[in-house]
Specification:
Blueprint lengths: L1 H23 L6 H8 L7 H11 L3 H6 L1 H11 L15 E8 L9 H11 L3 E5 L3 H10 L6 E4 L3 E5 L3 E8 L6 E9 L2 E9 L12 H6 L4 H16 L4 E6 L9 H5 L3 E2 H5 L26 E5 L3 E8 L10 E7 L3
Parallel strand pairs: 1-2, 7-8
Antiparallel strand pairs: 1-12, 2-4, 3-4, 5-6, 6-7, 8-10, 9-10, 11-12
Helix pairs in contact: 1-3
């Protein structure tokens, strides 16, 4: 049994080394490996079982072999489970929330959304996939909390702060219509971009997941991310980039944004921060299984992230992301 365990540990560790070497060489752009790249968190699933077996069987060789997988997991994800001191900012403080309301899938109803906003009490709300009828209810019900409401057919932004300017943003001809706003946050202009990036390939469903994985192609999503990165570079001063990006932090194009702006949840959130899928209609009603982190609040260096968490179920296949922010002294 010890020999068999050692061989398993050796095969698993060698496979991890080969996998991360392939990612380092730029593999995983499309096809099956592209799908696995998005799910990199889960290549560590065998590690706890193999480590426990090595301890119980007193398999020293297997235990030594498992040090590398455990070390890699700690390197990539350990900081997300370590308490961090709350950073303080001398400027105005506010709370931002991004949420794909699921109007194109299973959600978009006004009642759970209103309940979410009243529970979390954000000052700034970036919504995606929000039905027009729900927006009308929000405008009538929450006008005192969010007197400034701007939207496109695909996104909507609700703000406690005055909106100085608003522009539609079309990332490509086949993409969702996003938006960019300038807000007056207690005398400081903050640029907010609310985006919904199209997912790689199309037609994902549980029934067709195998064929979908074979034809997986992140090309058009990555092209949209390049357009977002160019827009980020064109902004001066404090800015927020919020929305549904349809990619995990392991995606090929995540670094286009993360090298320019700060990922708020990665900075100050606790845990994995998975937001999707909150509802899997293909496996039965009411099944919540958030496996991926694809919704983000990015911020520029003029802002400080103080806290970040995923919000409660609000009737969508996504969970909201809530971030407390503070402006630095101008």
């Amino acid at each position: 049994m010890r020999l068999g365990l050692t061989l398993l540990a050796l095969a698993y560790t060698a496979g991890l080394i080969a996998y991360f070497a392939a990612l380092g060489l730029g593999a995983g752009q499309d096809g099956w490996l592209g799908v696995v790249r998005e799910l990199t968190l889960y290549v560590f699933l065998p590690a706890p079982a193999l480590l426990l077996a090595a301890v119980l069987l007193r398999g020293r060789a297997a235990l030594l072999l498992m040090l590398l997988p455990i070390g890699l997991f700690a390197w990539f994800y350990g900081p997300q489970f370590v308490p961090r001191a709350r950073a303080e900012g001398a400027g105005p403080k506010f709370r931002a929330l991004t949420f794909n309301a699921g109007g194109n899938e299973v959600g978009g109803r006004p009642e759970p959304l209103i309940r979410l906003l009243r529970t979390e009490q954000p000052d700034l709300v970036a919504l995606q996939e929000i039905p027009r009828s729900t927006l009308d209810v929000l405008a009538a019900t929450l006008s005192d909390d969010y007197p400034y409401q701007v939207g496109t057919p695909d996104t909507a932004t609700l703000s406690h702060f005055p909106v100085l300017a608003a522009n539609d943003v079309l990332l490509d001809a086949s993409g969702y219509l996003s938006e960019q706003l300038e807000l007056d946050v207690e005398g400081q202009i903050v640029t907010v971009t609310n985006v919904h990036v199209k997912r790689p390939t199309a037609g994902l469903s549980l029934r067709r997941i195998l064929s979908w994985a074979r034809t997986y192609d992140a090309g058009w999503r990555d092209a949209q991310m390049e357009a977002i990165a160019a827009r980020v570079r064109s902004v001066t001063g404090p800015q927020l980039l919020m929305g549904d990006f349809n990619q995990t932090p392991w995606s090929t194009s995540y670094s286009l944004i993360a090298t320019q702006l700060h990922d708020s949840f990665r900075e100050v959130g606790w845990g994995f921060g998975n937001t999707f899928p909150n509802q899997l209609t293909g496996l039965g009603a009411g099944l919540a299984l958030p496996l991926l982190r694809i919704d983000y609040v990015f911020h520029s260096g003029e802002l400080i992230a103080q806290d970040a968490h995923t919000g409660p179920d609000a009737g969508s296949h996504h969970l909201p992301v809530v971030v407390d922010l503070a402006l630095r002294e101008p």
